[in-house]
Design goal:
Blueprint lengths: L7 E12 L12 E11 L13 H13 L6 H13 L4 E10 L10 E8 L2
Antiparallel strand pairs: 1-2, 2-3, 3-4
Helix pairs in contact: 1-2
Length: 121
């Protein structure tokens, strides 16, 4: 196979965690459940070795560390912190982060949140 550019998409779907997040008074002083979907694009193929790719379990741990670092007023701020941290890995070409607050609109909608994408320039 020559002259082919391979692209790999790694993903984490439906990762549910507790996060200190929310701008409203009733959201302060407690955690709430959020669901994350993350897609990471790398431009180099894996050679069947974990060291050659981006470890999605390491991304999960990074997300948990960011979530426990303090209170985020906005979902967008939380998403940006994740995006910036993952893009620190030079193998990552782009990332898509979707965060849904599961309790934001109880009785009106299943969830509400934000989606943010970032691409290495």
């Amino acid at each position: 196979m020559t002259d082919v550019r391979l692209r790999t998409e790694l993903f984490i779907e439906n990762l549910e965690i507790d996060a200190w997040i929310g701008v409203h008074h009733h959201e302060h002083g407690r955690t709430q459940r959020v669901r994350l979907d993350i897609t990471v694009v790398i431009d180099q193929p894996s050679m069947d070795m974990l060291a050659d790719t981006v470890d999605y379990d390491a991304i999960r741990h990074m997300i948990l560390d960011i979530a426990s670092a303090g209170h985020y007023e906005l979902v967008e701020t939380f998403a940006k912190r994740i995006l910036e941290s993952v893009l620190n890995d030079q193998r990552v070409a782009s990332i898509d982060v979707r965060i849904a607050k599961l309790e934001a609109m109880t009785g009106a909608a299943q969830s509400a949140g934000a989606r943010m994408t970032g691409t290495r320039l």
